[in-house]
Amino acid sequence: MGAAKRWVPVIVGPTAVGKTAVAAALARVWPVTVISADSRQVYRGLDIGTAKPEAALRAKVPHVGIDLVDPGERYSAGHFARDAARWLAELPAERQPVVVGGTGFYVRALADGLFREPPLDPQRRDALRSWLRDLERVGGWAARLDPGYTAGGRQRAARAVEIALLSGRPLSWWQAHAKAEGVIEPWYVRLTVPRAVLHQRIEARLQRMLAAGWIDEVRAALARGIAAGAPGLDAVGYREIVRHLAGDLPSERLAGEIAAATRRYAKRQETWFRHQLVGYRVLTLDATDAPAALARTIVARWRESNGER
Known about the structure:
Elements: E1 6-12, H1 19-27, E2 32-36, H2 55-60, E3 63-64, H3 77-90, E4 96-100, H4 104-111, H5 122-133, H6 138-145, H7 154-167, H8 171-177, E5 184-192, H9 195-211, H10 214-223, H11 238-245, H12 251-276, E6 282-286, H13 291-308
Parallel strand pairs: 1-4, 1-5, 2-3, 2-4, 5-6
């Protein structure tokens, strides 16, 4: 039997629901260290479109899980779980870890564990990745090779193809038969708002990002030699801006397409959390309330729950 896992609050919810604002409010009443569970905030130099916490907040409140790799590198949920285990072990006793993020596979890697990846030949893997970069319908290949593949971004689809072709078994088989343990016992705080409110927040945040120079951020990344199909640029908004800079998406349609893609992504996140959190302790909060009020509720309920353990 392994050692008891640390009980950790995990704030989840769809993009733009207000997770960062609640974490900031929580830090004003609790000595927290934020563990970012966001698969896009790991990329250095991509700050605006990934909605990273502002530098002023990060100067006051310790954050980990941000700016880990260059946009041309891959960073998986498995890497995240291993890194997070180290961050938790190194955390001073007086600081309370709080996981904040909307990437479901990162959260699941922490709570449930993923799987021990089989050894893959590095040369064959590099050759396969080169081929996949130029392949248009990676998701279609993933679905053919792995009956358990449902949906996801290009990076997830490419990973499913890699595992299936290089190991001889689909990713879903490895996940079922070679599972590793999670590194925390999660206490979930799920933030929700009415759909119309979420769409308003998505639109308002999008306009702020564009005004802050999101297009220039992508232009600069491409100028540094980051490939248009690199993992860091394979995300909602970044894909559309790359198309815009390539002349494939006119200016007048750019914001609308990003907003539509973000709404679809938020809907997938909400569905994922609604189904994946069944069986866990979940505190569901209406994020139309002020972040300070939500933070007070979280701390009060956490203390109540700790007293019951």
